[in-house]
């Protein structure tokens, strides 16, 4: 059974930083075989892609987080990260880790971690 477990969320003031982690586990599961992504769902809104990383360390970011967020991965630890700097109140959301075949074909979801940015 594959599990994606997020951690690192919390409450932070605007301008602050947080680092999210997503540890993957499961028989024969490797993050190198999937497009790994961070999604978020703000209150009352739909879930949206924040950042993704795929083989060769090709990365993609939503325009709203470019220059502030950085996605990375540690293949040996089967873990991906999201470094979030210069946080804004509009970044407040539940953040989810996902393993996908493509952007629109999510195979596994994590349980989510709350990020709250106060003004």
Order of helices and strands: EEEEEEEEEEE
- The percent range for helix content is under 10%
Low-confidence stretches: none
Q: Given the C-alpha coordinates, what overall shape results?
A: globular
Ends apart, CA distance between termini: 40 Å
Q: How is the main sheet built?
A: 7 strands, mixed
Provide the structure class: mainly beta
Number of strands: 11
Mean pLDDT: 96
- Strand share of the residues? over 45%
Helix segment tally: 0
Radius of gyration: 13 Å
Written account of the structure:
This protein is an all-beta fold and 119 residues long. It contains no helices and 11 strands. It has strands at 3-7, 10-13, 18-25, 35-41, 48-54, 58-61, 69-74, 79-84, 93-102, 105-109, 113-118. The strands form 2 sheets. Strands 2, 4, 5, 6, 9, 10 and 11 form a 7-stranded mixed sheet that branches. The chain has a 4-stranded antiparallel sheet with strand order 1-3-8-7, with no helix packed on it. The protein is globular, with a radius of gyration of 13 Å.
């Amino acid at each position: 059974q594959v599990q994606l477990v997020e951690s690192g969320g919390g409450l932070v003031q605007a301008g602050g930083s947080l680092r999210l982690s997503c540890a993957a586990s499961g028989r024969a599961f490797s993050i190198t075989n999937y497009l790994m992504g961070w999604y978020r769902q703000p209150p009352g809104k739909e879930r949206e892609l924040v950042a993704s990383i795929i083989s060769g360390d090709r990365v993609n970011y939503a325009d709203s987080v470019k220059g502030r967020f950085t996605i990375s991965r540690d293949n040996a630890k089967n873990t991906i990260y999201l470094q979030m700097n210069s946080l804004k109140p509009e970044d407040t959301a539940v953040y989810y880790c996902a393993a996908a075949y493509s952007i629109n074909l999510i195979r596994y979801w994590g349980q989510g971690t709350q990020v709250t940015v106060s003004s």
